Amino acid sequence: MTLRAFDFREIAGLDDTATAIRTWLSKSTSFFSDEWVQATGFGAKLVLGPVSTDSFESILDATPRTDWCCVAYLREDLPTLWYSSGANFRKVVGDLIGFDPPEESDEETSEPQEDIELGAIEADLVQWVLDTFAACLSQGWMGTDEMAIQTGKMEKDPRKLRLYRAKDLMTRVTLKVECKSATSEIHWLLPKQKVSKLFEDTVDNRQKAPAASPSKEMIIQMPVDLVTILGSAKVSMKDLKDLKPGQLIVLDQRIDAPMTATVDGASSFECWPGRLGNNQAIQVSRTNKK
């Protein structure tokens, strides 16, 4: 059976799981790029490729035995599967060890891309990439609680992993890792019903969660602006134009009346002007509590 790859843009409005995955990935890609810059000096990003749905058996039957795979647990009871060819993983490793992958050749003597073997060092680097990927997805998780994705050891032949029943529906997500040297594809296999339920529970929990409010300790430490105006006056444009240093302007504030201090534009205190050391100061005479 041939899988039909869906363009995400065609199904985003219909498939809530695909929409949630895109949101999740968009929140995670910046974390991944930061990790990649630290490791290689170059940026990288994650891009969501085709999303399709088929039975577990059909997807595995269409997967080459030579692919490398890794089980990643979203929860203890929710294993997922990352897998790709050795050629794709080698493209990612190229950035880490500083070499460009060889160009593909059409000659019959060339090595089939699906049969590329990873050396011990390359396999360790791929494991680091997947662990880093898991950590970045954990940071980008859109739920109210943090998610810690646990990854297993790299193995050969994903068809040997019977994580689910043959007829269980799976969501197959293609994640494209755009690096300096090349773009690599890693496939992510998730149980459709369980993952859909996880996303639904996440949204429900976020709706039920009480609105965040600052603590009393935080509130009492917040700075506020208290403003006291000595007085005001109205002058004509001519007088303002002819104003010179040394001239006096009579304010509308009587010297035998207290000034008003405002907080956030609201009249809050009556006070008298004064001095404390080398600074001007005010002495509160009455509060205007409402």
From TrEMBL:
Location, primary (coarse class): other
Protein keywords: Bacterial flagellum, Cell membrane, Cell projection, Chemotaxis, Cilium, Flagellar rotation, Flagellum, Membrane
Domain annotation Flagellar motor switch protein FliN-like C-terminal: ranges: 220-286
Gene3D superfamilies tied to this protein: CheC-like (3.40.1550.10), SpoA-like (2.30.330.10)
Lineage top rank: taxon: Bacteria
A Pfam family assignment: FliMN_C
Keyword Cell membrane: yes
Topology of this chain in the membrane: Peripheral membrane protein
Compartments where found: Bacterial flagellum basal body; Cell membrane
Family, as annotated: Belongs to the FliM family.
Function, in words: FliM is one of three proteins (FliG, FliN, FliM) that forms the rotor-mounted switch complex (C ring), located at the base of the basal body. This complex interacts with the CheY and CheZ chemotaxis proteins, in addition to contacting components of the motor that determine the direction of flagellar rotation.
Protein's recorded name: Flagellar motor switch protein FliM
